[in-house]
Design brief:
10-stranded mixed β-sheet, 33 strands, globular, about 10% helix, UDP N-Acetylglucosamine Acyltransferase, domain 1, single chain
Length: about 325
Amino acid sequence: MIDFNREEFFPIKKNFLISELSNILNKITIKQNILNDFKIQDISTPLILKNNSIVFLFSKHNIKIINPRKNILFITTHEDFINDQMNYIIVNDINQTYNIILNSIFCHDDSEDYHDEFEFINGSHISKFCYIDHESKIGKNCLIGRGVRIGKNCIIKNNVVIKNSIIKENVTICDNTTIGSTGFGFSLKNLGSNNINPQVGIVYIDNYVHIGSNCSIDRGKIDVTYIGKNTMIDNLVHIAHNVIIGNNVVIAGQTGIAGSTKLGDNVIVGGQVGITGHINVGNNVIISAKSGVTKNIKESSVVAGFPAIDIKLWKKKIIKEKYKNK
């Protein structure tokens, strides 16, 4: 669990009481059960519960809650997910509800009222609300935003944008890379730039990570996007929101990793690999170049192809197809 103070990155507009939120959601509320009218101070996920917070239950597989505290408000579209010992509001559209509540509580950099203040230092714009260790080096034409923390001995090269992120020690980030950008979250029923899901998590980059040029790493939706120690990321790599990458991972260029996927330790990913969202890749896995990973991969596997399968099976398949066509 990575703990962080959300308000340092996303200032709170107002701490609503549950009863006040209930009034805002009146038109889309189906049923509610309010045991105690506490003040909302944060948002949580089912796996990391925080006091005085809201938890959105988007799907049943997220439910791992036993005897939830009474100072948590659960919001869902499914009555099966809750019980009368919980504070809950059942709504008819959870994406719309999520957007309404988070846009009401937090300022984030996809909202018109988001505010930051910058100083122009050595050719870069540095937020007055961030911290950069004096032993780290910032290149030219960078932008370092509100709440960002950069530890010792980091090298941030030219034209880098870092927002909504914690960077530990001895990290190198190469030219034109963006860290902490907005994740790709929305409802297919309600498209458009005004309807994106607010992303109020962060990126956490651990010690001795190297990130190449022209990469993009999206911040978590609620919690974190995490890059583990000693991980090496090539140029032109995209890592989506909520991705968890273990220690000693190598990711070659033009790879894309979709949201909420987990890579274990010592994973090697070849160039131009595509990895779908919400899957787990075990420790010590090797993924061959240009593979398409669409399901979980058990540890110590070597896979190739699309969909990616054990490389020995893939080679047999290629040979069989070759001779079949002769």
